[in-house]
Amino acid sequence: MATENYDKQKTIDLRKKHVGPSCKVFFSHDPIKIVRARGQYMYNEKDEKYLDCINNVAHVGHCHPDVVEAGAKQMELLNTNSRFLHDNLVLYAQRLQATLPEKLSVCYFVNSGSEANDLALRLAWQYTGHKDIITLENAYHGHVSSLIDISPYKFHQMTGAEPSQHVHVAFSPDIYRGKYCEDHPDPATAYAENVKDIIEQAHKKGRKIAAFIAESLQSCGGQVIPPVGYFQKVAQHVRNAGGIFIADEVQVGFGRVGTHFWGFQLQGEDFVPDIVTMGKPIGNGHPMSCVITTREVAESFMSSGMEYFNTFGGNPVSCAIGLAVLDVIEKEDLQRNALHIGGYLTQLLDDLKKRHLLVGDVRGRGLFIGLDLVRNREKRTPATAEAQDVIYRLKEQRILLSADGPHRNVLKFKPPMCFSREDAELVVEKIDQILTDLEKTLGLQMSEAVISENGHTKRKEPSDENGLVHPSNGSSHKHTGTLPLDKKNNKKQKT
Amino acid sequence: MATENYDKQKTIDLRKKHVGPSCKVFFSHDPIKIVRARGQYMYNEKDEKYLDCINNVAHVGHCHPDVVEAGAKQMELLNTNSRFLHDNLVLYAQRLQATLPEKLSVCYFVNSGSEANDLALRLAWQYTGHKDIITLENAYHGHVSSLIDISPYKFHQMTGAEPSQHVHVAFSPDIYRGKYCEDHPDPATAYAENVKDIIEQAHKKGRKIAAFIAESLQSCGGQVIPPVGYFQKVAQHVRNAGGIFIADEVQVGFGRVGTHFWGFQLQGEDFVPDIVTMGKPIGNGHPMSCVITTREVAESFMSSGMEYFNTFGGNPVSCAIGLAVLDVIEKEDLQRNALHIGGYLTQLLDDLKKRHLLVGDVRGRGLFIGLDLVRNREKRTPATAEAQDVIYRLKEQRILLSADGPHRNVLKFKPPMCFSREDAELVVEKIDQILTDLEKTLGLQMSEAVISENGHTKRKEPSDENGLVHPSNGSSHKHTGTLPLDKKNNKKQKT
């Protein structure tokens, strides 16, 4: 095949020889060689097709022709740095700004989510004159050294690693596995109080808070959806301490959550972060990224006297690609697709929960969904090995899914936004079969009575945006069977 | 014009509104809007042509068709992360490795020089178990926070800024403006002794050295060429202290120095760094970058247990572009062009020195050249305002050049590698006129006698690779009039 220079074994051998061993491949005992991709499908060297349920970078679909054309055309014309004026830069800044609350008006273009989050820290340090950062348990914000410091997901991989002195780790606002669960009367306030406590403790040590940083929905941390109101309350505590709020949208932005363009908007219109960072999906795979902040923060950064120059950031090619991505999201109504197909997929997974004891929790917004596998529903014991089994068996059936979270037991759905109803049905059908097999082996079978009782909840409790039910007074998660595609639900989804 | 959406003033206004004010444009009082570029030429919105003498990112020439085609073709086919196997990644790693000493065999692909240098620090910290970094005066290694820490060029822009505790600043090995000049019997040893002293001081405080980092030739620092043997001696001191040597080739790599593919190779075959970082020219403008190190360092990094994943790094598009850049360098013999045209340009600038008192020093290797302007040759007083004047007047004549170094008085030449003899003649002719004007205004005129004496040196002293003469026992720099394109010189240049 023209797209292959070496046979697969040779590729593996050369990779072992010349690529850092810390750079892991998926399915290391039998990795996949991909030679082309289109939409939500990837093809290996034998032209076998894989359904991609994980690649949130290929946001508008792998190799989208409009994006490719925009990039190729601009590459032919000009690709230089932002010390020269260029319309693509300002057009793109305008377009991004228009998706955000008005006060988030000043952009910095960089090359990766890591560069974006590092710059966000620099902005916060300069603006506040403080040094300390509050981050969440299991958070991942990037691979440069300043971000490893604030990423428990990473630094906990090192033996005996402790957070740096200037880093404080707050509870993850996880109402399934966290300190305050769905049976708590007000988890948003309770989790925000934890941040307040941390601030007070830091102050007692003479330390000062520069920023609170969180993904708007935690991704690697286990597809965690913070309770509504949490960000507002945290922002208040942090701002009272002279700090600012950084919303990391690198994984979840650009319409993925369905009801809104940005994940933080799920918290309500009354919440506006001081800095928003974006990345992965922004260029559909092209290395680019952006930090957007307020005029006040930007001017304070300038007042340090230090120029900010990023060699590749905001070049005309990146901006042309960024503009094309925004165009495709609009033209193909991909945010709405995320809402509908995401809702449908959530519902199908929810149905799985009714039949499979291994499914502990289904949670998500739009096409950002987690399936939390457990060995024991009461204890919520993470079913780590089983989650690995599911993704390996799916891979054999040419479906790409991954498991993440601190226990690596949460199946993560974050497919290209063109994901279809049929794709959703296919992956859920396969998971259904695999869970059936696994439960048979484990002797975990649900009684008819339980299945019927689960079905019963359908008529009892209202569902939220994605058809999920979070009963406020029960200890277990229950979900309706209502399809989010019906009219009543669509209305709810818009609120 | 189809390539312009807004008139220039509107672009400026929007940029003021939506782009971080720390992001400066060139010639801020009358910035340039560029809409297309080709080879070593850039064109503004009126289709007026500028000669580009500064853009070392557009290494093989702006918008080189081979590079554009390679990128466009691969974008159409596949652009995904390196958790899947792909031949481009291993092909590219092989090709890069082949340009380096054999022990530098393991690659990490990232998105920018900043990401590369940050990763180099992480590798050094993990491998050595030490924390401290020795950097050079006026060094610039990138914009992420860990690199601002080791970049005096940046942190000195902030009022009252001092280096962090773990950062030690060594003398810049600058034999024109540094502590030990060309009249010193052995500046290489003397500058290396300074590093040794720093290590000893650090040890006295109980601190331990992780790495010494330096650009192979200092760029922003003022186009500084370290004396041959300096790196070897520094490496010995640093390795004796358990640290490693990081060569930053972000600005100067990929054949620019003419005689060699990498700048550090100018130090001799007996010098091999432990880590080499590359960036800017690597993708001719595409955001990509690489860190190459030894098997030992890479395995130690892996042993921490922390995976290294870079979302965009090493994607098939970046690798296709990287491969195309290497192909063009070879096919068009651009390293040799850098040697010859760089030598010729150096010679022309050298001739300027004979006629203009404002020229204090001409130094360079290949197409990496600095023209150090001075108000007083004896005192070597930096002619900062005059350097600014030169670049502004050149701009009016549509020639792009910049001034850098700690005093912003060094005119920096680092043009696309396809720079021609005619380009060299044009820029030097214009500088000649401008210097004549400036000297007239300043009342700085060289006597006929001096011009004749300068000419006289031609027959007295041998020239080095680029036709430069560094007399070992004089206090002033003198240069031959010998063209480096003649046979004898070409031979010398190969050594």
Automatic annotation (TrEMBL), chains A, B:
A cellular component term, taken from the record's GO annotations: mitochondrion
KW Protease (keyword) present: no
UniProt enzyme class: lyase
Keyword Mitochondrion: yes
Cofactor(s) needed for function: pyridoxal 5'-phosphate
Record keywords, A-Z: Lyase, Mitochondrion, Pyridoxal phosphate
Record-listed E.C. numbers: 4.2.3.2
One Gene Ontology molecular-function label: transaminase activity
Main location, first listed in the record: mitochondrion
SUPFAM superfamilies: PLP-dependent transferases
Superkingdom as given in the UniProt entry: Eukaryota
Subcellular location: Mitochondrion
Recorded catalytic activity of this chain's protein: phosphoethanolamine + H2O = acetaldehyde + NH4(+) + phosphate
Start and end residues of each stretch annotated as Disordered: 452-495
Purpose: Catalyzes the pyridoxal-phosphate-dependent breakdown of phosphoethanolamine, converting it to ammonia, inorganic phosphate and acetaldehyde.
Assembly description: Homotetramer.
Listed PANTHER family: ETHANOLAMINE-PHOSPHATE PHOSPHO-LYASE (PTHR45688:SF1), PTHR45688
Family: Belongs to the class-III pyridoxal-phosphate-dependent aminotransferase family.
Protein known as: Ethanolamine-phosphate phospho-lyase
